[in-house]
Design the sequence.
């Protein structure tokens, strides 16, 4: 089959599969903490990291000037995640203000640095909206390594990360290392964003973390099931979206997110209908 | 003869929230196996004092010891805490079993111990919610949610249990369950600190009351029988390990009360 024999699609499908699995794991913790937009703030700073990596690649006269873009994005995203977490913890700035500063500061710095590196802001477009067709094998292996790290920590520490994100006061009273666990969630979000960046781009990356969780929430009654369902949904969305774009000339990142929105709309509509019917049946039973 | 180490010792505690002083030089001991209630009206500082004891909010000055160890360094393996409600309700569904299982984590224990599920189920059973273990807690009634939080604290088999207004807005069946749990834990010799507006149905279980008013202790001794019945002359009990009663009552004399 052409789809699987094409090396470009092999790389793209592998990365899409990894992103579909990992993004909802972190997304579940972010939704639990009511910080669904954290990914957006970090993503914008990751863009500055891409540009910084580009600048470093140019300065080092590398054959591929964007060879250091992904490592640069990882470093900047982690720094942003730690900064946001510290600001939130200290309460010196409201969370939305801190996020806004990172949003705009990140984009502005990215555009400035790419200019200094001799490029133009169009070089950043692939990172803004995703460019899965440009994924190289080194990118794939880096993504595999980072994804394994996200899954090992995100799933292995699910009990304590749940405890902290569900009821932080109780976690503090229990003597759990709350600060370290909160930082872990933030850093996991940063790493996830840099992995997902190539698939959907920094502007849509939050959607890939949050939409599968929002869909899973329609049918799940527990935290672990929500996480498991959302991993399945995320994978299905990424692979389906990418497969469709193989046959039709559509932008993969945008299609994946639109597919997610459609699935969410359908599931929440069906759930609403079922709830109304259940309520009506209950009322009829009460009033005879 | 040296007195035994109290389960909790609070010495000259000062706490501020948002720059506003809330607790002013409060001192009291809770003996091992004692059931002590912290009482007072809204804004009296009782919840703030309890949250400071638990390390949830920082203290301005003073000293808090749990079993003779500075509270910040004290192990939490056998310390149970029941907040008024889940203080940071999450955005994702969570089953009662998951919430109770999180009570088995403490200090450096980041994953539940072997047999954790059985212990969590046992705790849920003790509050009459075993059949709702897999139910999303947000779909339970207020009283049932409170029982889940009690089960979370009980899963740890605490020898020190701290409860913040556990009866506030709770239905009668849940109040009955709670009274039974408290009776059982008292019989097992655990120490209990319980924040209450009024002692109500729990009166016979309570050994001693500390009544706060605007961050000062105004009564320490036998529990007042009715809301508002504070400083009963002759019942005001000074710090049991302090020879200086004016220091021990943390401002009682300033309010013109008999010590």
Sequence:
């Amino acid at each position: 089959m052409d789809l699987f024999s094409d090396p470009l699609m092999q790389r793209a499908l592998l990365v899409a599969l990894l992103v579909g699995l990992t993004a909802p794991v972190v997304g579940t913790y972010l939704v639990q903490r009511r910080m669904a937009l954290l990914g957006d703030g970090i993503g914008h700073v990751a863009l500055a990291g891409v540009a910084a990596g580009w600048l470093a690649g140019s300065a080092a006269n590398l054959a591929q000037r964007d060879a250091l873009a992904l490592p640069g994005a990882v470093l900047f995203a982690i720094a942003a995640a730690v900064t946001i977490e510290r600001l939130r913890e200290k309460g010196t700035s409201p969370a939305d203000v801190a996020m806004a500063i990172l949003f705009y500061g990140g984009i502005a710095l990215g555009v400035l640095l790419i200019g200094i590196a001799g490029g133009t802001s169009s070089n950043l477009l692939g990172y803004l909206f995703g460019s899965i067709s440009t994924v190289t094998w080194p990118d794939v292996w880096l993504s595999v390594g980072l994804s394994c790290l996200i899954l090992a920590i995100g799933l292995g520490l699910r009990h304590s990360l749940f405890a902290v994100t569900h009821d932080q006061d109780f976690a503090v009273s229990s003597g759990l290392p709350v600060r370290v666990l909160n930082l872990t969630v933030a850093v996991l979000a940063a790493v996830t964003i840099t992995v997902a960046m190539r698939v959907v781009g920094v502007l849509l990356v939050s959607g890939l973390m949050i939409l599968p969780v929002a869909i899973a929430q329609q049918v799940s009654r527990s935290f672990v099931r929500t996480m498991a369902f959302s991993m399945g949904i995320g994978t299905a969305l990424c692979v389906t979206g990418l497969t469709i774009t193989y046959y039709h000339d559509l932008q993969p990142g945008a299609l994946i997110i639109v597919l997610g929105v459609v699935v969410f709309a359908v599931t929440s509509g069906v759930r609403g209908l079922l709830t109304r019917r259940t309520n009506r049946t209950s009322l009829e039973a009460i009033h005879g | 003869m040296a007195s035994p180490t109290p389960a909790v010792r609070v010495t000259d505690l000062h706490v501020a929230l948002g720059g506003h002083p809330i607790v002013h030089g409060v001192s009291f001991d809770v003996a091992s196996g004692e059931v002590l209630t912290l009482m007072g009206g809204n804004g009296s500082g009782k919840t703030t004092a309890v949250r400071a004891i638990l390390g949830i909010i920082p203290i301005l000055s003073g000293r808090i010891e749990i079993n003779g160890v500075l509270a910040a360094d004290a192990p939490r393996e056998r310390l149970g805490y029941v907040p008024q409600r889940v203080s940071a309700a999450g955005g994702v569904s969570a089953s009662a079993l998951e919430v109770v299982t999180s009570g088995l984590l403490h200090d450096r224990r980041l994953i539940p111990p072997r047999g954790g599920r059985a212990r969590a189920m046992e705790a849920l059973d003790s509050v009459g919610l075993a059949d709702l273990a897999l139910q999303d807690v947000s779909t339970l009634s207020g009283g049932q949610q409170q029982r889940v939080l009690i089960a979370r604290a009980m899963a740890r088999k605490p020898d020190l249990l701290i409860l913040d207004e556990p009866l506030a807005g709770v239905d009668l069946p849940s109040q009955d369950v709670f009274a039974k749990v408290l009776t059982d834990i008292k019989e097992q010799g655990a120490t209990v600190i319980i924040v209450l507006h009024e002692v109500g149905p729990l009166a016979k279980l309570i050994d001693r009351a500390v009544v706060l008013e605007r961050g000062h202790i105004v009564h320490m001794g036998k529990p007042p029988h009715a809301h508002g019945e504070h400083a009963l002359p002759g019942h005001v009990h000074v710090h049991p390990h302090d020879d200086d009663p004016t220091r021990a009552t943390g401002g009682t004399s300033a309010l013109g009360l008999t010590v």
About this structure: The interface with chain B takes residues 28, 31-34, 36, 156-157, 159-160, 162-163, 165-177, 213, 217, 220-224, 226 of chain A (CB under 8 Å). Chain A has one domain: 2-287.
